[in-house]
Each structure stands twice: as C-alpha cells, then as structure tokens.
C-alpha cells in the first residue's frame, strides 16, 4: 500500500472549525491486490491503421474486481482528447453558471419571503401550511436536524449521499456493465465524456469511500466558510472533471488504458485551495499527533508524491488525476476567486431580466 498522509488540524484560523484532515488517493479500479481476478485483453495491430499504431499497446492487462466484465482496452484514440477537453470546458462553465443561478434564486426567494411576511401577504395560506407542517412530526424533526448543520455540512451531506447511492449500485451484479461504462473513467472506452463526471461520485471499495468522505467532510467546513456553498460546489465539480481530463491525457500519452474512479481528484482541489489559502494552519499526522507541520508544507509534499508517481509511472493510484485536481484548486485560489467568480454578475443581470418581477 502506498504511503499516504493522515493529517489532523492543530491550529486553524478563527473563521474555520476544528477538523481532522486526511488525504486518500483517487483509486484505479482493480489495482488493489494480487488476489483479484485478472481479465487479459489482447490487442492485435491493424496493419492498415499506421497513423494510430504508436498509441496501441500490443498487450494490455487490466486487473478488475468486477467479475465477468470485459474492459475496453488497447487502442486509445488521441482525437478523443479534444472531446474530453471540450467537455471539460463546457461542464466547468455550466457548473459555475448553474451555481450562479442557484445563488440568485436563493437570494430572490429569501427577499420575496421577507417581503410577503412584512406585508402579511397570503397570511391564510401560510397559516394553513404551518398547521400541516406541525402535524407531520417527521418533517419537523428533519427540518430541525438540517437547521443544526453547519453550512459546510449542508453541502457535504448531499454529496455524500450521492456517493453512498452509487456505491450501493456497484453491489448489484446486474448493473455491473452499466457501472463500468458510465461510472468509471477510461479514455479507451466508447463513452468518454459523462464518465469523467460520474466517476467522481463512484467508489467500489468500502475503505475508499469512507476515506474520501472523511476528508471531504473535514475540508468542507473551511472551504465553504471561505467560498460560500455555491462557489464551493462549482469548484468541487470543476476540479473533479479537470482531474478526469488530466487522467485521460496522461493515459493517452503513456499508453496506459484503465479504469479510474473516486472523488479524490475533486477533493485534491479542495485540499489544495484550503492549504494554500491558509498555509500557516498547523497539521499533524493522525497517529503521531506530537509531530506538527504547516498546511503549506503538506500540500507541497502531497503534490510532490503525485508528481513522482506520474514521472516514475506508478500505477497503483491515478496520480495524474490528483495533480489535475490540485492544480485547479491552486488556480482557483490565486486567480479564479478574484477574476472568474465576479464575472457571474454579468450573467445574473441577464437572468434577472429573464425571470422578470416576482408574482404577487
């Protein structure tokens, strides 16, 4: 098992909550032990296709835990990189447009609710709605639990729920072909684009999902406190798809087709942002709390390990995806927050005109 850092906070800025920090990699499905079944897919060179011959390995061994599933392997079409790039750009743009609309609608809804409450508009309807609400105890309890959550936990909870649902779907044998096709990223597969996103919510092993959700929960407090829930979600989704794109590029150049899945690429974006935004935050190794070091040093070490994995060709984890996610986190810390996020004001103006005045 590759060496990984298990970190916990010692001293953090007052704006952030105390939390435990852990780094766990984006995992390549199947490279988790020699006791797993090996599916060997042989690729035969096509004499007529001399243009793409350099990207076609003669033989590819794809370890997989999914019994009886043939993994797309062998030739990786370099032209798919353009498809991946265009999808990455479109999805990233769409993510920030969507969260901008979400932010606008949230503010608009609160303003309308406050105005109607002040003017006593629809008092009878509000009274009836409150009466029905009081009769449904479970809704009241759920609402109370939700209101007690911190802003970071309110963002974390739906993301965690989606990951748990996808993890459960992996346990259904009849869905295995669909899961491999759409919830595992593979540049050699026919479906290239949407798996780049769906794979960031996909985990096959229990340890993998537990470790990733633990670190996401730890860092979501700090990131949401700094960015806000809308900007955080846009950065998280974008970091995930950028991580998948970096993985595609590396696998194509290195001629190493294979499945990748997990939220570690997106989490690396959050980790890089928080550690760069608060570089003096004191961290410690979970099982060695007496040794402390700064967050700025931690992110450099983690990215250095992943860079070494890329250069040395380590194949246990998807190090290229880690670096891609971390680089996006650094980009957002140094440039995106100050220059990209404020640009949403132009779009919100058009959206406000499209929505028109609120209904009475």
How many individual β-strands? 6
Describe the largest sheet. 4 strands, antiparallel
**Helical region count?**
12
Helix content: 55-70%
Straight-line distance between termini: 62 Å
Task: Return the structural class.
Answer: alpha+beta
Shape: globular
Give the DSSP E fraction (strand runs of 2 or more residues): 5-15%
**Average pLDDT across residues?**
76
Order of helices and strands: EEEEHHHHHHHHHEEHHH
Explain the layout of strands and helices.
Layout: E1 6-11, E2 20-22, E3 38-42, E4 59-63, H1 80-119, H2 123-135, H3 137-148, H4 151-170, H5 176-182, H6 193-198, H7 206-227, H8 229-254, H9 264-277, E5 282-285, E6 288-294, H10 295-312, H11 319-340, H12 344-355
Antiparallel strand pairs: 1-2, 1-5, 3-4, 5-6
Brief rundown of the structure:
By secondary structure, the chain is an alpha+beta fold. 59% of the residues lie in helices and 8% in strands. The N terminus is likely disordered.
Structural summary, described in words:
It is built from 12 helices and 6 strands. The strands form 2 sheets. The chain has a 4-stranded antiparallel beta sheet. It has a two-stranded antiparallel sheet with strand order 3-4. About 60% of the residues lie in helices and about 10% in strands. It has about 350 residues and is of the alpha+beta class. The longest helix has about 40 residues, at about 80-120. Helix 1 packs antiparallel against helix 8, helix 1 (about 80-120) crosses helix 12 (about 345-355) and helix 8 (about 230-255) crosses helix 11.
């Amino acid at each position: 098992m590759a060496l990984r850092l298990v970190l916990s906070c010692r001293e953090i800025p007052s704006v952030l909550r105390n939390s435990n920090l852990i780094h766990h990699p984006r995992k390549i499905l199947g490279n988790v032990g020699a006791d797993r079944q090996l599916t060997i897919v042989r690729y035969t060179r096509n004499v007529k296709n001399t243009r793409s011959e350099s990207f076609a390995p003669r033989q590819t061994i794809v370890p997989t835990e999914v019994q009886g599933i043939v993994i797309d392997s062998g030739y990786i079409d370099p032209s798919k990189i353009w498809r991946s790039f265009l999808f990455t750009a479109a999805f990233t743009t769409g993510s920030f447009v969507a969260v901008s609309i979400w932010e606008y609608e949230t503010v608009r809804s609160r303003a309308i609710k406050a105005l109607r409450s002040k003017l006593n508009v629809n008092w009878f309807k509000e009274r009836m709605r409150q009466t029905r609400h009081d009769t449904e105890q479970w809704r009241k309890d759920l609402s109370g639990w939700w209101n007690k959550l911190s802003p970071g936990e309110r963002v974390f909870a739906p993301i965690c729920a989606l990951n748990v649902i996808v993890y459960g779907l992996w346990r259904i044998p009849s869905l295995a072909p669909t899961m491999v096709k759409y919830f595992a990223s593979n540049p050699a597969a026919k479906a290239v684009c949407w798996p780049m996103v769906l794979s960031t919510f996909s985990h096959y092993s229990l340890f993998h999902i537990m470790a990733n959700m633990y670190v996401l929960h730890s860092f979501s407090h700090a990131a949401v406190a700094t960015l806000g829930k809308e900007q955080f979600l846009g950065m998280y989704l974008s970091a995930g798809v950028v991580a998948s794109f970096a993985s595609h590029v590396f696998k194509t150049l290195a001629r190493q087709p294979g499945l990748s899945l997990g939220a570690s690429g997106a989490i690396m974006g959050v980790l890089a942002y928080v550690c760069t935004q608060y570089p003096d935050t004191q961290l410690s190794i979970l099982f060695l709390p007496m040794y402390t070091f700064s967050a700025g040093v931690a992110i450099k070490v983690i990215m250095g390990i992943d860079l070494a994995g890329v250069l040395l060709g380590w194949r246990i984890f998807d190090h290229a995806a880690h670096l891609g996610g971390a680089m996006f986190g650094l980009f957002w810390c140094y440039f995106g927050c100050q220059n990209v996020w404020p640009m949403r004001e132009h779009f919100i103006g058009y959206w406000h005109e499209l929505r028109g005045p609120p209904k009475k």
